[in-house]
Every structure is written in structure tokens, then in C-alpha cells.
Amino acid sequence: MITGNDVHRRSALAALAGGVLLAGGLVPRRSRAQQDFSRVEVRSQPLGGGLHMLTGAGGNIGLCIGDDAVFIVDDQFAPLAPKIKEAIARLTPKPVQFVLNTHFHFDHTGGNEAFGKEGALIVAHDNARRRMTSEQLISLVASSMRQAAAPKAALPVVTVSGDITFHINGEEVHAFHVPRAHTDGDLVVHFRKGDVVHMGDTFFNGFYPFIDVGSGGSPEGLVAAVDRVLALVGDATKIIPGHGPLATKADLAEYRRMLVTVVQRVKDLRRGGQSDEQIRGARPLADFDERYGKGFMKPEVFLQLLLAGLPR
């Protein structure tokens, strides 16, 4: 539910910066309409054991193929569904039978309708489905956008509050909820036998993450989600981020170091009595900007999300 206070806070955030777009991720509706998806190529990166990572525009896709069925994690933007199907068809003639959404954002669930109409069983967290059933306002600080309610065919048929395991293609696919991280409905997916983890947007590899504070996400929840994954992966584990290239445990550990450091700095500055304006002037992210600040989430925007998401 969006309250009057939520709208006021988001309007204030939107006034702080201009022109931020999530290229390859969340973009305002008018920009999505103008985006030329005909130029997007959906590519497959093999991970072993029938597992693949598909990249195109929007969130990275996890793919599990084998004797039983085709199982995918997320499905990018709606116009890319035919290209996603073509990429999968180059690997297997079987149709997609299972779609698992890591969260509700349209750059990860846009293909749901196409796959749902063809009989795929769509699975997500309870809160993800709840958000998909009504219009959502997503704040990117510089701008807010509305995500329309999903049509019936795009809605998850099975939802979980905690975790769920699929025994398919010789795999154990364990999906578990990480509370108040990127959103309030995030699932992390662990392909146990293949030693692959899909983190959805709890992990942006190589740049500052988008934390959807207005949809229940929080900086401290994001750190907790990363900690949970770090506790179950090894040095050889392949980690699929929501955005960015395939990653390792070392990449995730460095991402965690950045998150923990900047969260603590902001909290310390607030405890010292500094206002948000003073904190912005102190540039508490400066030493991380070279590595993480060159993506679509600019340092000043990420800092404002930290300020919005951390308790006062």
C-alpha cells in the first residue's frame, strides 16, 4: 500500500537528481517504449551440468535443461520473450515448463505472460505476486515509474513465504526468501548439484545496486542477503547476479565489503548529528566510486537510497 507519506518521500527523492535511467534494467515507461529491442541479442553462457546464464536486456536469466523439463529463473522484458525462446531452442527443443521469479520488477518478469500462456508454471514469493496484482510505483530517486498490474497469464501460480525445492533434471533447485533486501519479495536460487547461485537483484556485479526502498527493500536487508549466500558458496561456485557478468565468491565478498562499509559510514554520520545534506557533502562513497560508480546507479543516487533506507 502506498501511503501519503510514501508519495511525499518519493517526490522529495525525485527532486534530488535528474536523468537517471537503468539501462539494461529499470527504465521509465516512455524510455521503454522507445528502446529498440530488435538490436538486443540474447546470449547463452554454459555453466556446466545443463545450467546456463542468458544475457540480453534486463535481468540475467538462469536456465536449467535436462531430461525432465526446461526451468528458467526470470525472463527479462516482455518484447524479448521470442528471443529468449530462440536462445533456449538452440540448446533444447523442449518448451519452458517452469518460470521462477526472483522478484516482481518488470525487467525480470516481463516474459511471464508469454511463457504463462504456453503453459509454464510461474513461481514467486508471496509478496512478489501481491505486488504484481496491482499497479506499483517504483522510485529511482531521479524519477518514479509505474509498473502496471500484470495480466492473469503473467501472475505466479505458486507462491512461497519461505523456501521451496524443485527436484528436476537431476538438480536440487532450492529457492529461499531473503527479507527486505532488494524488495520485500526476493528469492535467491541455489542449484545445489551444479554449484550455481542466482541472486536476482540482491547482487549487482561491478556497480552500485538499486535498492527499491519503496517496495520494502533496505540496505541492511541487502547485506543480510549477501551474508546468507556467502555462507553457502565456495570458491568454485558460479554466481549469477541480477545484473552484470557472472561472478565468483570473491566478487561477492568484495561487493559485501563495499555495502557494509558505506552503510556503517552513513549510520555513523547520522549518529554524529549530521543532516542528510551534510552527509551528501561528506561523500562517504568516494573511495568506492571508481569501482562501483560507473554503472547505471550513480553514486549520488545510491547514496540517497542509503539515506532513505536506513533508520534515523
- The 3D shape can be described as globular
Number of helices: 11
**Strand sequence of the main sheet, in spatial order?**
1-2-3-4-5-6-9
What's the CATH topology label?
Metallo-beta-lactamase, Chain A
Task: Kindly give the count of domains.
Answer: 1
- Helix fraction by DSSP (H/I, runs of at least 4): 25-40%
- How would a crystallographer describe the biggest sheet? 7 strands, mixed
CATH architecture: 4-Layer Sandwich
Portion of residues in beta strands equals 15-25%
List unreliable stretches of 5+ residues: 1-33
C-alpha-based Rg, rounded? 19 Å
Q: What integer is the average pLDDT?
A: 90
CATH homology group: Ribonuclease Z/Hydroxyacylglutathione hydrolase-like
What is the CATH C-level name? Alpha Beta
Distance between the termini: 22 Å
